[in-house]
Amino acid sequence: MITIYFLFTILILLFTTAGIVSAHCPLCVAGAGAGLTLSRILGIDDSITGIWLGAFIGALSFWSQKSLGQRNKLFFSRWVGFLIYTVFIGSTIWSFYKFNLVVKHGEIFGIHKLIFGMVLGGALFYLVDLVNAVIKRKNGKSLFPYQSMIFSLGSVIIASLGMYILINYYI
Length: 171
Fold this sequence. Notes:
Elements lengths: L1 H15 L9 H17 L3 H26 L6 H21 L8 E2 L2 E2 H27 L7 H24 L1
Antiparallel strand pairs: 1-2
Protein backbone atom coordinates (compact mmCIF):
# COMPACT_ATOMS: atom_id res chain seq x y z
CA MET A 1 0.00 0.00 0.00
CA ILE A 2 2.88 2.32 0.74
CA THR A 3 4.31 1.74 -2.74
CA ILE A 4 1.00 2.78 -4.31
CA TYR A 5 1.06 6.06 -2.37
CA PHE A 6 4.71 6.54 -3.30
CA LEU A 7 4.04 5.97 -7.01
CA PHE A 8 0.97 8.21 -6.89
CA THR A 9 3.01 10.99 -5.26
CA ILE A 10 5.74 10.70 -7.87
CA LEU A 11 3.19 10.84 -10.70
CA ILE A 12 1.60 13.96 -9.22
CA LEU A 13 5.02 15.60 -8.91
CA LEU A 14 5.91 14.71 -12.48
CA PHE A 15 2.72 16.19 -13.89
CA THR A 16 2.67 19.34 -11.74
CA THR A 17 6.25 20.52 -12.18
CA ALA A 18 7.32 22.43 -15.27
CA GLY A 19 9.95 20.93 -17.50
CA ILE A 20 12.32 22.23 -20.15
CA VAL A 21 10.79 22.97 -23.55
CA SER A 22 12.29 20.90 -26.37
CA ALA A 23 12.18 21.33 -30.13
CA HIS A 24 10.45 17.97 -30.41
CA CYS A 25 8.51 17.20 -27.26
CA PRO A 26 9.43 14.03 -25.38
CA LEU A 27 5.82 12.92 -25.14
CA CYS A 28 5.39 13.09 -28.92
CA VAL A 29 8.55 11.10 -29.54
CA ALA A 30 7.58 8.50 -26.92
CA GLY A 31 4.16 8.22 -28.55
CA ALA A 32 5.79 7.77 -31.95
CA GLY A 33 7.98 4.99 -30.54
CA ALA A 34 4.96 3.22 -29.08
CA GLY A 35 3.09 3.69 -32.35
CA LEU A 36 5.95 2.10 -34.27
CA THR A 37 5.76 -0.97 -32.08
CA LEU A 38 2.01 -1.12 -32.58
CA SER A 39 2.37 -0.73 -36.35
CA ARG A 40 4.58 -3.82 -36.53
CA ILE A 41 2.01 -5.78 -34.52
CA LEU A 42 -0.91 -4.56 -36.70
CA GLY A 43 0.92 -5.46 -39.91
CA ILE A 44 1.21 -1.99 -41.42
CA ASP A 45 3.49 -1.98 -44.47
CA ASP A 46 7.18 -1.69 -43.64
CA SER A 47 7.73 1.30 -45.92
CA ILE A 48 5.17 3.37 -44.01
CA THR A 49 6.56 2.18 -40.68
CA GLY A 50 10.02 3.11 -41.96
CA ILE A 51 8.93 6.69 -42.68
CA TRP A 52 7.84 7.12 -39.07
CA LEU A 53 10.94 5.32 -37.81
CA GLY A 54 13.18 7.66 -39.82
CA ALA A 55 11.40 10.68 -38.32
CA PHE A 56 11.66 9.13 -34.84
CA ILE A 57 15.41 8.62 -35.24
CA GLY A 58 15.66 12.18 -36.53
CA ALA A 59 13.98 13.56 -33.41
CA LEU A 60 16.33 11.50 -31.23
CA SER A 61 19.35 12.86 -33.10
CA PHE A 62 18.10 16.44 -32.63
CA TRP A 63 17.82 15.76 -28.89
CA SER A 64 21.32 14.34 -28.82
CA GLN A 65 22.68 17.36 -30.65
CA LYS A 66 20.96 19.69 -28.19
CA SER A 67 22.30 17.71 -25.23
CA LEU A 68 25.83 17.70 -26.64
CA GLY A 69 25.52 21.40 -27.49
CA GLN A 70 24.91 22.23 -23.84
CA ARG A 71 28.37 20.86 -23.07
CA ASN A 72 30.20 22.26 -26.09
CA LYS A 73 28.92 24.95 -28.48
CA LEU A 74 30.66 23.20 -31.40
CA PHE A 75 27.74 20.75 -31.55
CA PHE A 76 25.28 23.51 -32.51
CA SER A 77 26.89 23.70 -35.96
CA ARG A 78 24.61 22.61 -38.82
CA TRP A 79 27.35 20.34 -40.23
CA VAL A 80 27.87 18.58 -36.91
CA GLY A 81 24.10 18.18 -36.65
CA PHE A 82 24.03 16.57 -40.09
CA LEU A 83 26.87 14.24 -39.07
CA ILE A 84 25.04 13.21 -35.88
CA TYR A 85 21.87 12.69 -37.94
CA THR A 86 23.58 10.44 -40.49
CA VAL A 87 25.38 8.47 -37.76
CA PHE A 88 22.05 7.79 -36.03
CA ILE A 89 20.33 6.70 -39.26
CA GLY A 90 23.35 4.68 -40.43
CA SER A 91 23.83 2.88 -37.12
CA THR A 92 20.14 2.00 -36.99
CA ILE A 93 20.20 0.59 -40.52
CA TRP A 94 23.38 -1.35 -39.72
CA SER A 95 21.85 -2.81 -36.55
CA PHE A 96 18.70 -3.83 -38.44
CA TYR A 97 20.78 -5.83 -40.89
CA LYS A 98 23.13 -7.16 -38.19
CA PHE A 99 20.29 -8.58 -36.08
CA ASN A 100 18.07 -9.66 -39.01
CA LEU A 101 15.22 -7.26 -38.24
CA VAL A 102 14.65 -6.48 -41.92
CA VAL A 103 11.89 -8.67 -43.36
CA LYS A 104 12.88 -9.65 -46.87
CA HIS A 105 9.43 -9.92 -48.46
CA GLY A 106 9.31 -6.74 -50.48
CA GLU A 107 11.56 -4.18 -52.10
CA ILE A 108 11.19 -0.71 -53.54
CA PHE A 109 13.84 0.24 -56.12
CA GLY A 110 15.88 -2.77 -54.98
CA ILE A 111 15.95 -1.64 -51.33
CA HIS A 112 14.05 -3.35 -48.52
CA LYS A 113 10.83 -1.52 -47.73
CA LEU A 114 11.73 -0.70 -44.12
CA ILE A 115 15.13 0.73 -45.06
CA PHE A 116 13.63 2.69 -47.98
CA GLY A 117 11.02 4.19 -45.65
CA MET A 118 13.63 5.01 -43.00
CA VAL A 119 15.84 6.85 -45.47
CA LEU A 120 12.85 8.66 -46.97
CA GLY A 121 11.41 9.60 -43.57
CA GLY A 122 14.79 10.64 -42.18
CA ALA A 123 15.65 12.78 -45.20
CA LEU A 124 12.19 14.35 -45.24
CA PHE A 125 12.30 15.11 -41.51
CA TYR A 126 15.73 16.74 -41.84
CA LEU A 127 14.74 18.80 -44.89
CA VAL A 128 11.54 19.98 -43.23
CA ASP A 129 13.59 21.08 -40.22
CA LEU A 130 15.90 23.05 -42.55
CA VAL A 131 12.93 24.71 -44.28
CA ASN A 132 11.38 25.52 -40.91
CA ALA A 133 14.65 27.11 -39.73
CA VAL A 134 14.87 29.21 -42.92
CA ILE A 135 11.27 30.41 -42.48
CA LYS A 136 11.90 31.34 -38.85
CA ARG A 137 15.15 33.12 -39.71
CA LYS A 138 13.56 35.03 -42.61
CA ASN A 139 10.54 36.22 -40.60
CA GLY A 140 12.29 36.51 -37.25
CA LYS A 141 9.61 34.32 -35.68
CA SER A 142 7.25 31.45 -36.44
CA LEU A 143 4.39 32.09 -38.83
CA PHE A 144 1.89 30.48 -36.47
CA PRO A 145 1.91 28.68 -33.10
CA TYR A 146 3.33 25.14 -33.10
CA GLN A 147 4.80 25.66 -36.57
CA SER A 148 7.71 23.25 -36.03
CA MET A 149 5.45 20.48 -34.80
CA ILE A 150 2.86 20.98 -37.55
CA PHE A 151 5.51 21.05 -40.28
CA SER A 152 7.24 17.92 -38.96
CA LEU A 153 4.11 15.90 -38.28
CA GLY A 154 2.36 17.11 -41.43
CA SER A 155 5.26 16.13 -43.68
CA VAL A 156 5.43 12.64 -42.18
CA ILE A 157 1.66 12.17 -42.53
CA ILE A 158 1.72 13.36 -46.16
CA ALA A 159 4.66 11.05 -46.94
CA SER A 160 2.83 8.13 -45.30
CA LEU A 161 -0.33 8.78 -47.30
CA GLY A 162 1.69 9.14 -50.49
CA MET A 163 3.49 5.86 -49.81
CA TYR A 164 0.18 4.14 -49.06
CA ILE A 165 -1.27 5.32 -52.38
CA LEU A 166 1.86 4.30 -54.29
CA ILE A 167 1.99 0.84 -52.73
CA ASN A 168 -1.69 0.02 -53.04
CA TYR A 169 -2.40 1.51 -56.45
CA TYR A 170 0.84 1.81 -58.44
CA ILE A 171 3.59 -0.49 -57.13
